[in-house]
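I need you to check the entry underneath: sequence plus fold tokens. Let me know what the token row says about the fold.

>
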Amino acid sequence: MSTIPSEGKKFAFIRGVPKLLDAQATFKQEGESGNWVSDNLPHFKKVVDEVAFLKAVHTDQFNHDPAQLFMHTGSPRLGRPSIGSWVTYGLGSENQNLPGFVVLTSGGKAPSAGKSVWGSGFLPSVYQGVQCRSKGDPVLYIEDPDGISRDLKRNTIKAINEINKKEYAKYADPVNFGKDKSV
């Protein structure tokens, strides 16, 4: 057992200086790059110089949730677009009627940081990821609800779009949409 250097550090939900289990593997510098590799990865040592190592990522977040959010969005606070949203925003999509990207979670649960880790933040929602579920419908709301025919759904959407077009023609300004001009 060893202890963490604790000077000036905060530990979430832990009092005093926590004890840690020592490394369970031996690490050695391998290849021309001198990257540290565990003896648990004997075949990886052979290709270590062909792999990119990202060593510049660090955080001072000491709680799991904000650290997860930081990893996926670049910020420990809510409201920033995820990396998937930025990729979809920057590269676009080959389709017009499917999500820009899908999300697969392990264990059937959302991450502890919540679904914001694949959210679009301040970007339009079209850039948000869509979670594929492991049970039931893979994506929610694709199937028509019970008792609602495809024609009824189509006519409802058409009616809503017509109302929206009339309102836009009336006001023609999204900032003042729905506000009475005579006031």
